[in-house]
Write a structure and sequence with these properties.
InterPro entries: DUF6788. It holds the Pfam family DUF6788. This is DUF6788 domain-containing protein. The chain contains 2 helices and 3 strands. It is an alpha+beta fold. The chain folds into 2 domains: 45 residues; 47 residues. Strands 1-2-3 form a 3-stranded antiparallel sheet, with no helix packed on it. It starts with 13 loop residues before the first helix and ends in a 5-residue tail after the last strand.
Length: 107
Amino acid sequence: MSYEPPTPPANLPKEIVNTLNESDPEQLRDVATYAEALAEHKEREARLEESADQEEVEERPDDLPDDVPAKATITIKEINDNRYYYWQWREGEKIRSQYKGPVNPDE
């Protein structure tokens, strides 16, 4: 072990370095424990968010058009005694729809 103080990482803000330099050994150990736990938490959150994004992509129906969001659902509208499927989703306060096809393919 060296008798010289350690060199802080170059990317660490000076305010943090100064605070650490003013801390006693017990506080430094507490900071190290907390920093390690916080780093693990943030890495886990990032992995969960990434996996949620991948699941969202995987759950996208094959017949969903590119301009329709994955959160869209299929609804049935009746027009002139004929029934049609529509993709439907919300954009802010508005409900958007896009034609999918007839309920009965013979129509």
